[in-house]
Amino acid sequence: MWIAVGIVSAALLLLLCRAMFGGRGPNPFQADTREPPRPTVTDRKVKNKVLKQGFLASKVPENLDAVVVGSGMGGLAVAVLLAKVGKRVLVLEQHDRAGGCCHTFTEKGFEFDAGIHYIGGLLGQNPFSCTLEQITNGQLQWEPMENPFDTVVLGPPENRRFYPIYSGHKRFASELKKLFPGEQKAIDEYMRLIRKVAKSMWLVAMIKVLPIPVAKFLVYSGLASRLCFFFRMASRSLTDVVNGLTENKDLRAVLCYIFGTYGNIPKDSSFSMHSVLVYHFLDGAWYPRGGASEIAYHMIPIIEKAGGAVLVRAPVNRILVNEAKEAIGVSVLKGKEEVHVHAPVVVSDAGIFNTYQQLLPLELQKLPAIQSILSTIKHGEGGLSMFLGLDGTKEELGLKAENYWVFAENNLDELCDGYLKGSRENANSNPLLFMASPSAKDPTWEERSPGKSTLTLVSFAPYKWFEEWKDEKVTNRSAEYKQLKDTMIQSALDIVTQIYPKVKGRVEYMDAGTPVTNQFYIAAPEGEIYGADHGIERFSPMATAMMRPQTPVKNLYLTGQDVFVCGLAGALAGALTCTSVLLNRNVHLDAVNMETMF
């Protein structure tokens, strides 16, 4: 028996080493492709020539190596990485501009970001920052935000408490200790757990690229949890961990505040997911110089240089399969006609629900392997975004490169749970509001829009509140829908003017994007902005192993935030994981090695 155990252990070790330390495929980071940054392009027409290339059958490159559905970070990054090893890739986007949640739009002369509000992890040379430099050839520039970069606000106007959140591995904790004297032990233990979880993320990536039988062996044997602290803490809720550290209700809320960046209230959040986000921002926060559209703008030329293309207004209505049930391309709906695009590899950045429940033929949707995966996940919470165009400069309006997280009180679980499970008659009692000024974060803004400013507000709203209007024309929905939106905007505006009093009377434009808006523009099935739900169930070892690039359909792969975690960094990690599978090479390790190579 011990001989058999030894053989199995040796084989497992060999597979782990192969997954961790490389493969036979080409390295997309073999050469340093960074170039000196060129001046930021502020002419919208020039940028649109790159970002808004409409689909025509005649524009589809010949002899494609892969076709990618969706142009978010997950889709574009896979295409860029494949392009860097000579692959010809076509990216298809259903919206009228590339970028997914990284796109920008303009209303009444004001430019707004659809989804990028701030990014962490960019201090110095590290795998994340190096990867971003390489996939944009060094052209994407980031502007550091203020320190404190976040401020947590608790309570009603008559009893409002402000808690600034500072970056810096030591300062983050030391400033909290000043705000909460006597809570040093709780804060130190919180930080210890955060770091330990974050530093064990390596196995999360590895388990997604190992062969399924090996991944299942690690899970069922308990080795995954033994080897990885992330998995040991994943089953514990954020509320459970934090409440076990302190009785101070304000401190509990402050330690939980950033749950809005992944969309689950503390009692439903995995402490491991939360830890990764907190750790991501310990070194500070940044914003893309020139706005979020700069991301796609500097990635697309790399795809084109290798013979590929990124085409918009290209709604993929189904994945094409042959008689052997292998993916062989996609169908693009052009008017009432289908245009078939063939490629030996199909990569979906459309999200796991869209891919498995909408794009695959019905007989493949019913595959037990696909149904098993879908049974472990659910849709994320619907996102609500509000956009304010303001008359005045950031100095005149008191706006800074910082964010506010405003909560009605410190009992976050009770307030948010009641709101999300309630009826839309309570839409004006939203207990959570994130507010930020993109214009104040971007030093090129004044050149593009002198004398103007913007605020973006983000919260959540149940999809069911808006579902009855999902089939109405997006720009002309019913009066009842508009009234509900106005109610929510006015409620948020009251909070905005309390935090930024100089904004009062200076609002020239305001509108909101609801879950059905997200459904239309970013093809989110139930208006979710973070993809599949990021609750406790998603981060069990088995669910983590099954949310992988490989699918039960040969030649079909997944990328983006549903493969890893949400946000730009999570979608990029999903792309690295997918590319690792496609190239038979540990591209995550290649990213780590860039720290010393370049």
From TrEMBL:
InterPro entries: Amino_oxidase, FAD/NAD-bd_sf, Retinol_saturase. Its main location: endoplasmic reticulum. Gene3D superfamilies: FAD/NAD(P)-binding domain. GO terms for cellular component: endoplasmic reticulum membrane. Residues 1-19 form the signal peptide. Residues 73-567 form the Amine oxidase domain. One of its GO terms (molecular function) is all-trans-retinol 13,14-reductase activity. The chain crosses the membrane at residues 66-83, 201-223. Its EC number is 1.3.99.23. Its cofactor is NADP(+); FAD; NAD(+). The keyword Membrane applies. It catalyses: all-trans-13,14-dihydroretinol + A = all-trans-retinol + AH2. It is a peripheral membrane protein. Keywords: Endoplasmic reticulum, FAD, Flavoprotein, Lipid metabolism, Membrane, NAD, NADP, Oxidoreductase, Signal, Transmembrane, Transmembrane helix. Belongs to the carotenoid/retinoid oxidoreductase family. CrtISO subfamily. This is All-trans-retinol 13,14-reductase. It comes from Denticeps clupeoides. The gene is RETSAT.
